[in-house]
């Protein structure tokens, strides 16, 4: 009975922290209203944000007040429960403005909200008809989702108690010993890059509104654009170069950024994942340009511009584009699919399988092959270089990564099969669901306002799994079911 009582107290603590996050979402909903004095024609949009905002703040306050008497350290599993519930609540509340305004139906609004918070960038809205307040709201979702919803809204508030929450969000990049300080440092780095991106975009010729939205979307590797043709709308080499730099910054582990800011350039370029990223691009870009893209565009310069931009966008899981993919050979499409599956850096705003995992799997293959060439009794300690230094890789770590990759590909195959069942071609289905699961946002046309409801919901689930990763859902689900049974059994007694 003592354990059951403690369990109930822990769930009260969890629910109380959820209240804090709900308050945070309510405050975030007010941010798009800051531009209403500039776009005075959008005054009527205020109510669509104000209603869910007030509801969230009041509800969050009530939940927090009723359940959070004191703060305590969170375990990893408790952090997982908060993260999963926080994401579901946040997505529903964030979709409300689209529903209240009548711009999207429930499924479409949920899709847009999930795409925003998971920093995917696939969209079912018509940006030419969507009010600026809603376009800015999409970018705000990507900003907060990229930094880590629960990490931003809770870890900075509850300090060292948020370690379980920090890890449950998929964060292994503790820059400093204290979680709160790490979170604040991440946000400082994040905001500094965004401000720099906005300034550079304006200098390059963007207006201030487009600059804000594209800087946020590029760094969060989100890819929501205010233009129908994405970055291609501007047809500017300078804007493309700025975007490439921001996409690179967004896909790099925050702990690696910390090394750069400390001036430890040599240590930065010794990181295995960083070297692997540059190796992939140095191999994929020239091969794709030479084999597949030459002859499609008018000049060699245009071909190189397109090849570099699109492949960086795919690997970084940003989803910005400068061209459509009609007429692209299957070889180029295959390379894009492979890069979207690999994805960005661990501990970054990017999605995908993650470069670190792929790097470890390839290294383990090489280590195994080497094992056949050395005497049996030889003791070897294999390691990789991570931002914090040498990491000696235990077999358990490799097994966990392999298990994750297996689950990832099973989900990917299921998603592709659903699209095939609706009559979409294999190549397009593979591309679209690789983009969905990798939270990339590039599309060959399957995702649209007319997309069948089941496909949209399969993409919603795919984006959620891709962003939060499978084990968080698994552990949180197992904990909730097990604890519910225990408390139910106790209640009957």
TrEMBL record:
One cellular component term from this protein's GO annotations in UniProt: plasma membrane
Entry GO MF terms: monoatomic cation transmembrane transporter activity
Residues annotated as transmembrane: 15-39, 45-63, 75-100, 140-164, 185-204, 237-261, 273-297, 331-353, 401-424, 454-478
InterPro entries: Cat_transpt
Superkingdom: Bacteria
Compartments, as annotated in UniProt: Cell membrane
Keyword entries, A-Z: Cell membrane, Ion transport, Membrane, Transmembrane, Transmembrane helix, Transport
Membrane topology according to the record: Multi-pass membrane protein
Pfam families on file: TrkH (PF02386)
GO biological process annotation, one example: metal ion transport
This protein's record includes keyword Transmembrane: yes
Record flagged with keyword Cell membrane: yes
Family per record: Belongs to the TrkH potassium transport family.
Entry-linked PANTHER family: TRK SYSTEM POTASSIUM UPTAKE PROTEIN TRKG-RELATED
Protein name per UniProt: Trk system potassium uptake protein TrkH
